[in-house]
Amino acid sequence: MLLHEDTSVTTISLPLATGLHRKGATDEPAWVRRTLIGVALIFLTLFLFVPLISVFYEALKKGTDVYLAAITEPDAVDAIKLTLIAAAIAVPLNLIFGLAAAWAIAKFEFRGKNLLITLIDLPFSVSPVVSGLIYVLIFGLQGWLGPWLAENDIKIIFAVPGIVLATIFVTVPFIARELIPLMQAQGTEEEEAAVVLGANGWQTFFRITLPNVKWGLLYGTILCNARAMGEFGAVSVVSGHIRGSTNTLPLHVEILYNEYNFAAAFAVASLLALLALVTLALKTFVESKNRWHEGELNEH
Amino acid sequence: MCTWHNLIWEIILNNFKQHSVLPGFNLAFGFTLLYLSLVVLIPLSAAFIQTTVLTWAEFWKVVTTPRVIASYRLTFGASFAAALVNAIFGLLVAWVLVRYPFPGKKLVDALVDLPFALPTAVAGIALTALYAGNGWIGQYFEPLGIKIAFTPLGIFVALTFIGLPFVVRTVQPVLEDLESELEEAAATLGATRLQTFSRVIFPTLFPALMTGFALAFARAIGEYGSVIFIAGNMPMVSEITPLLIITKLEQYDVAGATALAVVMLVISFVMLLIINLLQWWSRRQSASA
Amino acid sequence: MSIEVRNLSKQFGTFAALRDVSLKVHSGELLALLGPSGSGKTTLLRVIAGLEAADTGQILFQGGDATSQHVRDRHVGFVFQHYALFRNMTIFENVAFGLRVRAKAFRPTEAEISNRVHRLLKLVQLDWLADRHPHQLSGGQRQRVALARALAVEPTVLLLDEPFGALDAKVRKELRSWLRRLHDDMQITSVFVTHDQEEALEVADRVVVMNEGCIEQIGTPDEVYERPASPFVYEFLGKVNLFHGRLHRGRAWIDGLEVDAPEHTEAENLAAVAYVRPHDIHIDRMIHGGALPARVFHILSVGPIVRLELIRDDSEDKELIQVEITKERFRELQLVRGDQVFIKPSRFDLFPSQVVH
């Protein structure tokens, strides 16, 4: 925002200054500042930090033995496995979808583009419970394909495939939403240059487009994965809640909690909380890389 | 005959998409449409189609029973209140993060996204433990006779948690891009800091603030995992609509569950539309610089 | 309202933006702060306005110490390079802003405000746009609104930060003369910052040439152009040719020319440089006393002037000499590339070599 197009001579060599411009003329009195910071921090502490800390506290309250036992008992391990499987299928599929959708939307002009983008956003706006329900309506016993599935002894609802499907549904938009604005901002010039030089579609895509969006792609994948592993509502509807086979980690947490086995519930929950923290750390890292990368691109 | 078909097809294609030298449109677009239809559109339509087993009258009856209406009131009421609180405090947090230095700011900034990243079930049990009568926070309210967990108040708390990042993250970029010259101009013209904020800064932030509010509200309406533990789940009192859907499912009342789902879907679509309009408004505001 | 700046210094980290700057602005004059980027001119303007605080020094308005006064109490009008108009308000509301934020006791009635705003908008010839929003106006229009807005609060001092820097060349020229006329009508003490020497020389009553945080020279446009006080001012305000020679006790020997140098009577065998403007060089096809031989390297016809680039016959490194002559003279001489000519400076300024950078 400081890079006015005419590179006004007065804004050069004062990167420090523009930050300091705030001092004096457009600053609030110190007491106002401190009060605002204080209130903001109190709000965040109450609603954000304390809940986070309490997860780990409750998990370790009864000692590390109980903690380790909770996360290594067979049902928990099965839940971990199922969570990983669901994510391992959902994320790559949505990755391909995201790339395809972003390619079509960002590099071409066609009618109904905005409609398409809105449609991609749909899973975001739908309640998780409804997301699960609609799959029950198709694959459940009374669903469209219900009778046919029963005949062929294929179980989707109340079984792993249903969980995977629901997970895919809720995470469809994540990667696409990251890539679309990014690729739109980057424009089509580089790709057109590549085509003029004789590259075919795949070469252009893998050598030109993909490297340019790698940080955005990583960012979207991280978020997609976090949601895939943490999804609760949708998966709850399609799962049979059968311990040991159709429980993901979040569902397992619910079962333990409902049995009043709080220490175990929080122990398992702490794994998910750790996942969240790792996600945030990766997110911050990628964001800083992204900004640096964008800065590089802007210099061209 | 052959050439007629080709001609019509060409006309359709030319009107649909501009010519481009880049390859791969048909493949990408086709795949996108196919995937989207199979995974999203057809399943969503299942709700609308299945609900037609009920007549209008039956449908209306199902979605307007007293219990259901109580759940609407609770869901919308708590979501609105939570989004409102998030609008106020989210603006404050964004302001503090953008404008003031303080120790640990980077950490706080990163943690604002925690509700995005944390699985809803984890948030649910953590908040319940915290705000229960003997919890870290709940214990201070217990002697005052205020119960938080297992009451609508608890639902409000949970919805505030999950909506927290929305306002902060939509307002932050707008605040960052605000030119200091505008505030300096106001100062030279004699305005106090408060006047500058209310007349110059706040109007610029308003579209983004509204967008954040709408996003938080939309998310709160459909929320399940973080609410289900802290809500009392008592019919007519502390039962949210998504829970009602599950309850009906468990009672094998698929038609009833679907009817409610349709109501929620319609509201979701309306919210999506409103949010798109707000984002368009917000972009227009910042573009007219 | 006169302004006095005394011994102002300001540092940004390790960068010294202002070094012990002192200046007096006469009441009612239009003063230009001219200099390259980093010279401190904008910093000086902002310190006068109160948008920045100096590390040391004083600012006095009409003799009264305003150094620690907050910007909103200084009653200065400030015009920003990029207009800084309030996007969410109409043109009318923008101009009325300064009047509407006044404390109740000092606020005019809405009717008075409306009167004043329309009067000002008429003054800048934009009354017909009063209900539009800034994004619907062109750059030149926006800057005029910014000026009207600054004038609405009846400031005692008007400060402009590169007011025409963001505009097209043609609009810039128009607004320049328009500003001059406006100032003549209103007689308000005005200071404006620019890096365009043509603008400063054309518009201002006096010019302050700044470089690296210091004032190099203060004078009328004529003074700074015809009698530059230092090589920097010379080079900044126009093209210059350098001729090397020697100074000794009041006389100078420059390239075969011997002249009096009364200002340098104490000079003892100093190396010196003569600064000559392109239009102060006499050029002829025939040699006459003391003229230097040179060859025409490049001819550039620019409107009513012809710019010649010459290479001296005795120059090893092919240093170019810039000469400007009228079209008429050029037609007389009938010059083409490669022609032999003889040049002699008709006016020059001498500076000892060590002063030169």
What does this structure look like?
The complex is a heterotrimer of chains A (300), B (289) and C (357). Chain A has 14 helices and no strands. With 300 residues, chain A is mainly alpha-helical. In chain A, 45% of the residues are buried. The N terminus of chain A is likely disordered. By secondary structure, chain B is an all-alpha fold. Chain B is 76% helix and 0% strand. The termini of chain B are far apart. In chain C, 25% of the residues lie in helices and 35% in strands. Chain C is built from nine helices and 20 strands. In chain C, the strands form four sheets. Chain C has a six-stranded mixed β-sheet, sandwiched between helices. In chain C, strands 13-12-11-14-20 form a five-stranded antiparallel β-sheet, with no helix packed on it. A five-stranded antiparallel β-sheet of chain C has the order 15-19-16-17-18. The mean pLDDT of chain C is 88. The interface between A and C is medium-sized, with 15 and 24 residues.
Q: Which structural class do you get from the secondary structure elements of chain C?
A: alpha+beta
Distance between the termini of chain C: 38 Å
Oligomer: heterotrimer
Sketch the topology of chain B as an H/E string, one letter per element. Answer: HHHHHHHHHHHHH
SSE order of chain C, as H and E? EEEHEEEHHHEHEHEEHHEEEEEEEEHEE
So how many helices of chain C? 9
Distance between the termini of chain B: 55 Å
Fraction of helical residues of chain C: 25-40%
Number of strands of chain B: 0
Strand content of chain B: under 5%
- List segments of chain C where confidence is low: pLDDT < 50 over at least 5 consecutive residues: none
Question: Sheet with the most strands of chain C?
Answer: 6 strands, mixed
User: What is the strand tally of chain C?
Assistant: 20
Structural class of chain B: mainly alpha
Number of helices of chain B: 13
